[in-house]
Design goal:
The structure holds two protein chains of two kinds. Chain A is an alpha+beta fold. Chain A has five helices and 28 strands. Chain B is elongated, with a radius of gyration of 22 Å. The chains are: A alpha+beta, B mainly alpha.
């Protein structure tokens, strides 16, 4: 314990002398700060009334110069902050080191901490909500529930203080008794510091880019430590885009559905023609079957026109047909060719079948007008001789059918990029948070 | 929202174009990725001609 001169113990003094090396230590929070650490010799001491008690001398080999000089000021969210303390910590059971910079708001009890690990920065502040509860999932993982949001526990550790510089209003050495639990929902973090007596303090943390840090404190970029890409808390570059990106995708999908609903109301699906025809052999010309000419029907377009051809009575035979949709006013022809073939039988007592008795076709962008169909069928009449009847088929024509391929391809085009980004995000977080160097999830 | 939109402007333009094409396809009744029309040259039916417009040899000829 060292006695102090009156000029030093005065609470309004802005400097205090290190009890070991007598180095001047500037004091910002003259009323609050009672713990100090000397930048020259690494002595950590407390001020008690008119005395200074040395609590620890940090090892020379553990000491390092703060990236941000003490006394640095900056404005964050309208509050003035001054860097009053620097702490270097080491994980108790591993060679993991990080630095913490304590920024105080002079005259106020509020402070924030900037933590730096391998060139990656986080801003940490005491959570307004200290009523956060932890629950365990069926699969054994722990989650902290903060206002309905779940944060997965990914790290539990204790640490030692191996260096400190500046002034503090609490005994930082007592923090070595704390067990720290970190719950992650990238890019934010919930930190719970628990003492052995179960006293818990919750903190929020979020990633801060070097650019933000430079903006806040006007730091020389050359001073900032190089970022290690393999051990980072930083979110991917696409994080700032993520929210608007998902909003816009959602809005686009909603618009797609609304457009469909609007089209369905304005241009409802309607059957414009339906008839059954019998194939008849053409005995006059060399053609296989007589041509069929349908009655006229109206199409209100522009519309997609959907043909359904059924030959339910077909068995072990085929019908091939060319169908022409002809506009009666201008003679424009739309042409489709379809073959229906269906075979079945028994092999070794087992029934087999091949082909289908139904075919469909779609003609798109058909203008309004009066139309008729010319149908040119062809079939095997030898089979008809066996059955005693000619092949029969029905033909249905519908307009304004739902163009499902258009819809699903558009939906795919809308979703393909978000899906790629989701995979990227997943892979990025997986590689970052569960990197073997970083430490694994606790088993319990 | 608009500020966020500026970050994804190219993506927003692409989606707007995709949605625009889809809307045009729906209103005009156009299948965007091909349909079953075999008559791609758009010729007209000639009622005084031979009638049948290609296809198999055994098809009916008017």
């Amino acid at each position: 314990m060292a006695a102090l001169g009156n000029e030093i113990i005065n609470n309004s003094s802005t400097t205090i002398h290190c009890p070991a090396c007598k180095e001047d230590i500037n004091v910002v929070e003259t009323q609050k700060s009672i713990y100090f650490s000397c930048s020259a010799c690494g002595t950590f001491f407390e001020r008690v009334d008119f005395s200074l008690n040395t609590l620890r001398k940090f090892k020379e080999e553990d000491r390092c110069e703060p990236t941000i000089p003490l006394g640095t000021t900056g404005i964050i969210d309208g509050y003035n902050y001054t860097l009053t303390g620097f702490i270097r910590k080491k994980q108790t059971d591993d060679d993991i080191y990080w630095n913490e910079y304590t920024f105080a708001t002079p005259g106020d009890s509020w402070y924030i901490i900037f933590a730096e690990y391998d060139g990656n920065w986080m801003m940490i502040w005491r959570s307004e909500n200290q009523n956060i509860h932890v629950e365990q999932s069926i699969s054994g993982e722990y989650y902290a529930i903060d206002t309905g949001k779940r944060h997965l526990l990914y790290l539990v550790y204790k640490y030692n203080i191996i260096d400190a510089v500046g002034e503090f209003d609490w005994n930082i050495l007592k923090d070595e008794e704390l067990t720290t639990y970190e719950y992650a929902t990238p890019p934010s973090l919930l930190i719970n510091e628990e003492r052995d007596d179960n006293e818990a303090n919750w903190f929020n943390a979020c990633y801060v880019s070097p650019k933000q840090l430079i903006d806040y404190f006007k730091i020389d970029p050359a001073r900032l430590p190089k970022k290690n890409a393999f051990f980072s808390f930083n979110p991917s570059k696409f994080y700032p885009k993520w929210k608007p990106f998902m909003y816009f995708t959602g809005i686009t999908i909603m618009l797609l559905i609304l457009i469909n609903a609007f089209i369905a109301v304005m241009k409802p699906e309607k059957e414009v023609f339906n008839n059954t025809f019998e194939c008849q052999p053409d005995t006059i010309s060399n053609n296989n079957s007589k041509a069929i000419i349908s009655p006229a029907f109206q199409i209100t377009g522009s519309a997609p026109v959907y043909f359904t051809i059924r030959a339910n009575g077909l068995s072990n035979s085929w019908i091939q047909m060319q169908i022409e949709l002809i506009n009666d006013s201008n003679g424009k022809v739309y042409e489709i060719e379809k073959t229906i073939e269906y075979y079945d039988g028994y092999d070794d007592g087992e029934h087999w079948e091949e082909g289908e008795k139904k075919q469909t076709a779609l003609l798109s962008n058909i203008p309004s007008g009066t139309y008729h169909l010319n149908i040119y069928p062809a079939t095997e009449y030898s089979k008809s001789t066996e059955t005693g009847s000619n092949p029969v088929f029905s033909l249905s024509v519908k307009q304004n059918v739902f163009l499902s391929l258009n819809f699903f391809i558009t939906l795919t085009l809308i979703l393909i990029y978000p899906c790629i980004q989701l995979v990227r995000k997943y892979l990025y977080e997986n590689s970052k948070w569960f990197d073997k160097e970083y430490g694994s999830l606790p088993k319990n | 929202m608009l500020q966020g939109l500026s970050k994804i402007i190219y993506y927003a333009i692409c989606l707007t174009v995709v949605l625009g094409i889809y809307t045009w396809g729906s209103i005009s009744g156009t299948k965007l990725f091909g349909d079953d029309n075999k008559n791609n040259d758009g010729h007209t039916f000639n009622s005084s001609g031979s009638g049948h417009l290609g296809g198999h040899g055994y098809y009916f000829h008017k």
